[in-house]
């Protein structure tokens, strides 16, 4: 048995990627299909076990139909297993013509090659930075409403670190993100699930849940709100992007995990006024900002849109004129699967997307801002199982997002937020001896995937284009 893994080729263009030739030496599996326009194919690759495996090699050559563009997939075993893309006769916004793009290799898991084309005919790939992908895409996206734009999103975004909270909580069952807030922004995330709590009299991000309505809570803390404010300001001082922060799951952990009082909410808003570039309008009333165009927010500036999911008794008051909005100003669909099973989660989320998203003209239209919750949730039996760490389950689920989910998306039914744990991470970071997350590389795959949705799917919907 050889050493196998997968390469997912995602074709976010109107052109077929046709296989012109392929050959290999000592590879146990090296067979490549033509990749149809708008589709993804997950191809199994296996290095051999016979002979000198240091000589294993394979090449697959692709032409992009109707163009002069060409690229190759290369396998080499000079010192370690790896797959490489060679841009033989083409360039992308991230890589010049002739570049070699190392994708690495994951045993029994996938690495990805994602390419899409925008309205101007530019090629985008997952071979480089997406730190200002919104500004780079303004030619296509400036006149689209937020309901018609896809973006990466961070679940429990403030939990890029772990600080002890309750008994039984540790980083494997409480930390959801490997990267901190600033690093998530740099990796392309634009929608942030932030859960502020009071802990020891300080505002911090928290991840707490009640155990089966028992009045027993499990959880811990992440970054301080002060640290998050500093990091958001650092990013918006550098890049003119839109950042959406959704405040929810607020608790007073110093007072029996009770809901925040009006006075405490006011104190939180005062703290968050330290965020610069807040998107501010006077007397917003019931305005639905998800129906605003991207250019309304960031034509020549950065903008931070802050939405607060308020309990019934809590009021915004004058904070509504200072860049804080209630849930009625940004209605969205968000329904997570509450399972640790990849197959069940995948079926659940795709069914919900199909049922609740249908961007068409006239009767049958459904275009509420859609959070596509591609997250696995620990169950009771997982809480003390470090192998089932939240971040580990997230890296396993991501492979299916690039292949299965992409192939299920359509121009009429695509998500607004690709909502994940461990954003920007493919490798498992929680491994024996389970003392802290190990160092793993960061990638840009989820940002490239969101851009491909905007280019190859949303850009083909006449309703989206008409609204633009």
UniProtKB/TrEMBL annotation:
GO terms for molecular function: phosphoric diester hydrolase activity. It comes from the Eukaryota. InterPro entries: PI-PLC_domain, PLC-like_Pdiesterase_TIM-brl. GO terms for biological process: lipid metabolic process. This is PLC-like phosphodiesterase.
């Amino acid at each position: 048995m050889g050493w196998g893994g997968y390469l997912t080729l995602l074709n976010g263009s109107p052109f077929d990627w046709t296989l012109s030739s392929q050959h290999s030496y000592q590879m146990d599996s090296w067979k490549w299909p033509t990749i149809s326009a708008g589709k993804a194919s997950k191809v199994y690759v296996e290095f051999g076990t016979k002979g000198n495996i240091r000589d294993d090699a394979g090449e697959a050559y692709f032409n992009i139909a109707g163009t002069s563009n060409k690229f190759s997939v290369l396998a080499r075993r000079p010192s370690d297993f790896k797959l490489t893309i060679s841009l033989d006769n083409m360039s992308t916004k991230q890589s010049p013509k002739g570049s070699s793009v190392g994708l690495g290799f994951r045993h029994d898991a996938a690495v990805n090659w994602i390419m899409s084309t925008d309205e101007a005919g530019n090629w985008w790939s997952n071979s480089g930075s997406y730190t200002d992908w919104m500004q780079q895409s303004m030619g296509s996206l400036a006149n689209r409403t937020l309901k018609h734009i896809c973006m990466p999103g961070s679940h429990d975004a403030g939990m890029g670190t772990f600080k002890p909270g309750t008994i039984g909580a540790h980083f494997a069952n409480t930390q959801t993100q490997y990267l901190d807030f600033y690093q998530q922004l740099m990796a392309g995330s634009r929608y942030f699930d932030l859960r502020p709590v009071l802990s020891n009299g300080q505002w911090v991000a928290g991840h707490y849940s009640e155990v089966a309505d028992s009045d027993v809570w499990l959880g811990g803390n992440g970054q301080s709100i002060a640290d998050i404010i500093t990091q958001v300001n650092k990013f918006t001082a550098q890049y003119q992007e839109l950042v959406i922060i959704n405040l929810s799951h607020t608790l007073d952990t110093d007072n029996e995990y009770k809901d925040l009082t009006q006075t405490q909410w006011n104190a939180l808003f005062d703290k968050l006024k330290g965020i610069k570039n807040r998107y501010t309008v006077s007397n917003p009333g019931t305005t639905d900002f998800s129906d605003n165009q991207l250019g309304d927010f960031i034509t020549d500036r950065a903008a931070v849109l802050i939405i607060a999911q308020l309990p019934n008794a809590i009021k915004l008051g004058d904070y509504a004129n200072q860049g804080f909005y209630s849930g009625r100003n940004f209605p969205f669909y968000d329904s997570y699967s509450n399972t640790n099973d990849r197959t069940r989660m995948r079926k659940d989320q795709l069914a919900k997307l199909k049922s609740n998203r249908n961007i068409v003209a006239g009767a049958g239209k459904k275009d509420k801002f859609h959070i596509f919750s591609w997250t696995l949730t620990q169950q009771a039996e997982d809480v003390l199982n470090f192998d089932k760490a939240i971040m580990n389950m997230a890296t396993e689920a991501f492979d299916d997002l690039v292949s299965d989910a992409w192939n299920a998306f359509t121009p009429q039914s695509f998500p607004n937020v690709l909502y994940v744990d461990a954003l920007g991470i493919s490798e498992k970071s929680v491994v024996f001896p389970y003392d802290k997350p190990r160092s793993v590389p960061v990638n840009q795959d989820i940002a490239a995937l969101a851009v491909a949705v905007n280019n190859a799917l949303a850009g083909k919907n006449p309703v989206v284009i008409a609204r633009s």
